[in-house]
Task: structure prediction
Amino acid sequence: MHTLTKQPTSFLDAITGPAELKHMSVEDLQKLAGEIRQEIVNNLSRTGGHLSSNLGVVEITLALHRVFNTPTDQILWDVGHQAYVHKMLTGRRHKFDTLRQFKGLSGYVTPFESEHDAFVAGHSSTSVSLAVGMAIARDHLKQDHKVIAVIGDGGLTGGMALEAINHLGHIQKNVLIVLNDNEMSISENTGGLALYMKRIKETFFYRDIKEKLDSIEGSLDKVQLTAGIWDMILEVKKQAKERFDTPGIVFEKLGINYSGPIDGHDVSAVVRAMEAVKDKSAPQIVHLITCKGKGYQPAEDDSIKYHGVPAFSLEPQLREKVDASPSNPKSTTYSDVFTQALIDVAKEEPNLVAITPATAEGSGLVKFGKAYPERFFDVAICEQHAVTMAAGMAKAGLKPVVSIYSTFLQRAMDQVIHDVAILSLPVVFGVDRGGLVEDGETHQGVFDIAFLRSVPNFTVLAPKDAAELRDMVYTAVKESNGPVAIRFPRDKAIGASADGTEYSGTPASQPRFIEPTEWQIVAPGARSKTVKKPAVILAFGAMVDTAQQALDMIETDQIPMLVNARSAKPLDVSMLNDLLRDGHDTFITIEEGCLSGGFGAAILEWMSTEGQEISDVTPRVLPIAIPDQFVEHGARAILLDLNGLSKEKLAQRIKKIITK
Result:
């Protein structure tokens, strides 16, 4: 654990809102930038959060609020995870120590928190589309203000951002795009657009060469040279120019006026660039070059590691006093187990390939990429492309596995249906972050059970522990003839050791075939004197372990049966038939997903149709799931309890049901 000493500020303490920035000199703004970085590092050491991205946009944010006037002028932050400085400058600094804490400041932007936040943001590549829509509304309503979209070069790879730029160039609305170019999203950017942006930055070098050649040519005007020498000089100039792209030519061709590239850490230069385009009526893009993690050496050296950090994980390099204590070993997560399972299966399955849309770090697939680099594909922030590319691979004979967060899979549902499910292609989806996460409404992975269950040809699975996840991956890759989704939470893997070794190479831990759509009775239960057959708990995924802990807390002579219902689609109809014929008439479903359309809804649907033909008694089905509402940000344990899914809340609910 690190103890950081907060340094005194002189300028930051005087900032109560953006208005104060307009009276500061450029020199003072640069000093303020240093104080803001100090504040970010100190606060994130206690709360955790997105470090590198926010350190990289300090001067950009200062310039935006110096030149424009929020909330009248509307700043749309793509993703929103880089808006900490914006929050500090718009009256929320006093709450900064509550960042990402339950009932505290959100780690993203939301109008529910401040009028200075023009729109909610949590996913990438949305800001330009929003800006186009808001600009059209502004002009239709005859209003007069600026609409600014702040987007990174990573977000620019998303298809929706390019669609919006294409439309903006056509309709020529007054929109300013601020392009924060640091060559990174979460991981390093990939693709042709990223290479183009890199070539634009090389124009700094081209300008330098051109100036020197012009100087030499001017000096040589006074010297008698042969025609051949002059031809050689002109050819050198031509080659130098052709080697480097004209800055922003692609944007200009699309109808967007381009300015840049500009040093994004030079406050004076950024302010001048903003002032130059402030009153332009045609669409503009200002291209700013920044360093992710600027001003904090560990983050500059490894911006991927310091993109998002937990509390107390920093290595201070800002003159703080450090009390370094040994840290606890990192727990093995379901993401770790999933990746190791892929590596193990890939040893005997040469056609297995892994795909991720810019989440290689978070999903753990970096390890797979190092083991099988020729079979690993990071397609950048392009979820739709990732899914359809996998469909093409599967149709051509490969065995693709798409590792994707639940919240990001939402963005590719048309491709899931149109390109994968209709042909029933054997694409395996590793749905990471299935369930509740700390980041709030935009990131909760609670809808995947419902939307995947509704798609024909799909198998929807969730493991109860690490071993079952490993075996589901093995079985799905080796045997599946259609699409399979395996969802797992952002949590420590139940049953995994700290280093995960029992799932990596030892004979007892080799992946094995299972029947993932056959449910298992975990505990048979016990009837009481007054109840002939115990209630049946059908728990899905990691909720099996939580349900078991809840049952251990209940003091009653009637113990419900606990079933590991590891497939939400298809249901284990054979077991359900047996349970009904055996006289069980109370069923409790538990899932870490939304109530509407989820696993519990599937049981209700079946009981109301096929189940009625088996039992003379209409059984009670009581679903326990996340209510029909968006879930705020906060620690996972708090959110589980808030939504009735902690072991304590489950114990209370189950006891109330079985004692009625």
Q: What stands out?
A: The longest strand covers residues 586-594. The two ends are 49 Å apart (CA to CA). The domain at 12-200+247-309 is CATH 3.40.50.970 (Rossmann fold). Residues 1-5, 312-328 have pLDDT under 50 and may be disordered.
